[in-house]
C-alpha cells in the first residue's frame, strides 16, 4: 500500500495512492481521516494525483541517518569500513517532499546527492530486539541525503553539512508492503540516482554492510523512535555534485521515484 501526504487548495491530508505507477494518469489518492499510524479510515474523498501537491510523506520528529553503510561508498570517500554504524541526525527542518526545491546554500561550493532507502517508523520504540525489528516499521520511502561535502570535510561534525534546510527530500510516498527479506535477499531493492537523466548511482540494498534490522537495534539502544521518524540506511557508490537547475531523481525498486530540482537559496 502506498501512503502519501498531500495538499489540496484548502487542506492537508494523508491518503492511499492507487493505480499504475508506470501510468501516472491512472494514479488516484483516496483521502484518510487523521494519520495512518493506526486503523486506516477513508473519508470517501478522492483526487487524481496530478491534481494535488505531494508533500513529504511524514513529518518526523527526527531523521536518524547512517554514514558509510555501503563498502563501495566508503572506498570512494577514502575511508575504511567503520567498526560500528556511523550515526548522525538531520533536523526536521531539512525535510521536503517530492517536487520541492533543494536550496543550494551560499556557504557551500560542493553540494552532493546521496540516494538512499529510508525506513519510516510506525510505533514508539526503544531497545528493539532483532526479532521484533519488523514490528516497528511502518514502511519504506526514497530519500536524498543531500550533503555539503566541503563543509563535511572541514567541520568534522556533520550537523551543518547534512542538516541544512531542504537537505532531506523524502517521497513520493511510503510503501508499506515491502518486507525485510526483500530488502536483504540477494541484491535487495535497487537504489539509483539520476541527475538530468544521467545515471549517477546504481546499487542495491543487499550491499549494505549492516542490515535494516541491525540499524534499528543499534539506534534504539540509544534513543526512542516515534511514529513518523525516519531512518536513512546509507548510500551506494557514485555520489556527486549538484548545481542550480539540476533535476535529481532517487528511485528505490518497489517504492517509487523521488524527484527534486536544485534552486538557488534566497
TrEMBL record:
Domain Rv2993c-like N-terminal residue range list: 1-57
- Which GO terms are recorded in the biological process aspect for this UniProt protein? carboxylic acid metabolic process
- GO molecular function (one): metal ion binding
The alphabetical list of record keywords is: Isomerase, Metal-binding
Give residue ranges for domain Fumarylacetoacetase-like C-terminal.
62-263
The organism's place on the tree of life at top rank: Bacteria
Question: What PANTHER family does this protein's entry cite?
Answer: ACYLPYRUVASE, ACYLPYRUVASE FAHD1, MITOCHONDRIAL
**Name of the featured protein:** 2-hydroxyhepta-2,4-diene-1,7-dioate isomerase
Species assigned in the record: Embleya scabrispora
